[in-house]
Amino acid sequence: MNIWWRNLSLAKKLHLPIQLSLLLVLPLAQMWVMERFEEKMLEDVRLRAEDSATQSFLSLNAMMLSGTIANPELRAEFLGKMARRQGVADFHLVRAAAVRNQYGSGLGSESQGDALDRATMSANAAQFRIIRDGKRILRVVVPFAAGKDVHGTNCLRCHLVPEGTVLGTVSLAIDLEAEYHKLNRFGLVLVGGQISLQLLLFLLIGWIIRRVTGSVVELEQAMLEVRDSGDFSRRARVRGKDELGHIALAFNGFIAQIEELYRQLASKIQALETYHDRTEEELRIGSDIMGRITAAYGAPDPAVRIMISPATHYSGDLILTARTPDGRLHVLLADAVGHGLIAAMNLLPLSQVFSAMSKKGFSVSRIAEELNAKIYQLMPADRFVGAALVSVDFRDRVIEVWNGGIPTLILVGKSGEVLHEWRSHNLPLGILGEDGFSSEVEVFHCEQEGQLFLFSDGLPEAESPVGEQFGRERIQDVLLRNAPDYRFDIMDRALKQHLQGLPAHDDVSLAVVNLLLQDEMDGLACHMSHFSGDESGSRWKLIFRLGEDELKYLDAVPLLTQIVGKIHAAAEHHAALYVILSELFNNALDHGVLKLDSGLKHGTEGFERYLHLREERLRMLSGASIEIEIEKVMLDGRYGVKVRVQDSGDGFDHANLFDGPNELPVQAQYGRGLALVRGVAYRLEFVGKGNEVVAYYICA
């Protein structure tokens, strides 16, 4: 019903209630008028009947005075004439008991009164009754009481009764059919008038409503034209100063404002389209540049699987991999604050620094210092970068991690058991300056093969459409329940199922490092290359002496290797020279100067104890030095490089270091690194008391 009413037009909503009201009011008014006319008709008939009864009584009174009333025949004739009058259905006279006692019963009809006659005598008042027995008849019974002056006659002279005694009644029955016939004809006239009036009012009210709502219809048409054509110059016609005129004026003003806003919006849309096209082009170029930078400085490593899912066009997460000259794997996972292009720009300084320093052989501790300095220097204070730096030495089975603001790294065994975790103990890059920054790494010696999982906070915090986070428990469940070869793919698929096709609210990045342990000589990042350059160039020689202060903070091997690598003839042998320099230098520092025993590395906590003791002795170092000499030499007519390292330590007995020319050393304290150098170098010699060692490497 409500829907039907709401769907009606405004004219019908006005027309229907008015017409329904008229249909209800006019018949009720007619009924009321007819009732009033009927009451008036009955009142007139009653008065005429009373008057006729009175006239009949006066006629009888005259007969009484003339003495003819005593003649029954004359009296009967009079009563018959009265009963035969037009419109009279019955006329009779009834004597009261006082008259019957004095003069007798009279005619038979004069003594046979009915209940209405008796009621009239008893009440001494006229009685009326409408009889509907086939015909509608009004019966009027009028009493006549004895009195001294009844219409000029003293009744007490003839009737010996007290004054006021009812002497009799005159009953007159009037046929109402003629009157009701007139009344019905009048009712038909009223019905016709009502119908005519209803039609007239229908037309008149309809015309008035159309006149009133015409402005509304015009306003509606103007609105529809504006909607359909989009022409905001269209205006509604203002017909007057009434409420509808005010609405039309308000509409015209509203459309004028919309027209102005539309012009402004069209201008802004055009500007936005231009901006969008320019932004898309910038995004394309920026994405291409970011991709090229990542590809140039972070070539994928076969030991690492990577997944990065940006929340916007650009990713604020970055994963880079690089190898040091001696084959160690470096991994950087960086998560810049914020999203999109701004976050991606924070990562630009990291790529080149990480790649260059890794390829030069710098430790992740030193790389962390340099990355922090870059971010701290170049970026605003609130543009910090969470980062995790990982170094994996497959040969020595050592994992070093620096974690600043990245979720806990997880090392998982083949069966899914957690072997080790690296929680964040440092602030993100770019917050602290050089003095407050800590580059200390957490070291773990891995005795079995496994997988190292790194991920940004976007992975555990990724929310499903119902607001449920992916969660660390789900990550650990995937690692525990699945074989190593399938963990990465199942993790990726589980994340997509969790998001249900929706983008994550934050960038998501995941890296998995497969830790396949190698023998001591496997994976050596050096090889013998044929040198086709000019061997007749000038001789060169580099000598460096590092005192106790330099030994405490300077990472000398990458710097020396970089210098040697700049020499054209030795550039292709950068990796091999790095292995020789790093092993001889570390051997001189750890065993010659710091007097550390490699036997400390044995056991579950051995390697960590070894590193702590190394840091402690290095911090307390005094009066020590290491001298490094790198020289171009000729060996058997071929171009080569001589590397000499001498420390200030006590040396050792090197006479029985090697049992044979191609055998591994028998002393575990020095053997592993020296065996590696012996395998790379052309010749390895110890001088004096063992605190000086010389290695020769042939470049061609």
What global shape is seen?
Answer: rod-shaped
Instruction: Tell me the name of the CATH homologous superfamily of the largest domain.
Output: PPM-type phosphatase domain
Helical stretch tally: 16
Give the distance, in angstroms, between the N- and C-terminal Cα atoms. Answer: 102 Å
- Helix percent reads 40-55%
Named CATH topology of the largest domain: Phosphatase 2c, domain 1
At CATH's second level, what is the architecture of the largest domain? 4-Layer Sandwich
- Which spans of ≥5 residues are poorly predicted at pLDDT below 50? 519-536, 661-670
What is the CA-based Rg, rounded?
63 Å
Instruction: Look at the structure and give the mean pLDDT.
Output: 82
Q: How many beta strands in the DSSP annotation? A: 19
Total number of distinct structural domains: 3
- As an assembly, this protein is single chain
Helix and strand content put the structural class at alpha+beta
* Main sheet makeup: 5 strands, antiparallel
Residue share in β-strands: 15-25%
Write down the CATH class of the largest domain.
Alpha Beta
Strand order of the largest sheet: 5-14-13-10-11
